[in-house]
Design goal:
The chain folds into two domains: 68 residues, Beta Barrel (OB fold (Dihydrolipoamide Acetyltransferase, E2P)), CATH 2.40.50; 59 residues. 46% of the residues lie in helices and 25% in strands. It has three helices and five strands. Strand 1 and strand 2 form a beta hairpin. Helix 1 runs antiparallel to helix 2. The chain is elongated and about 65 Å long.
């Protein structure tokens, strides 16, 4: 997974990169407000010689991305469903089942937060050589 951005801040060993988010369809349709697009700031590990204004390519592994998605969405959803089923089986009451669903969701979110901090997705910044890029296009 790759995305291009511009360095906005340089710290000792980290950089902050401004990334233009694209819509999910790959178009640039921010004007219709149908897709969540816009500017996003991402912090990642820097490299030697990086300066503010440099154009960089942010790279993350697909495995890391999908693991994050699974932890962030799948685990809370599965916990909520499990809470609903267990709640209904134990209490035979829909209102108590709803409370167990909320408890399952809260437990899933808490677990996802704890696990995802240990398995944080790593983002690597690599410099883009604009001269080489222009030769390929021209």
């Amino acid at each position: 997974m790759k995305q291009t951005g511009y360095v906005t801040e340089v710290f000792r060993d980290r950089i902050k990169v401004r990334v233009e988010r694209e819509s999910s369809c790959g178009g640039h349709c921010a004007s219709c407000k149908g897709c969540p697009s816009g500017v996003q700031l991402t912090e990642c590990k820097g490299y030697d010689g990086v300066r503010v204004g440099d154009r960089v390519e942010l790279i993350t592994s697909s495995k890391g991305f999908y693991t994050g998605v699974l932890l962030g969405y799948g685990l809370p959803a599965a916990s909520a469903v499990a809470g609903a089923v267990v709640g209904y089986m134990l209490f035979k009451s829909e209102s108590l089942s709803v409370l167990c669903t909320a408890a399952g969701l809260a437990a899933g979110l808490t677990t996802a937060k704890a696990v995802s901090s240990k398995h944080a997705m790593t983002i690597e910044a690599q410099p883009i050589d604009d001269k080489k890029e222009n030769k390929r296009m021209g």
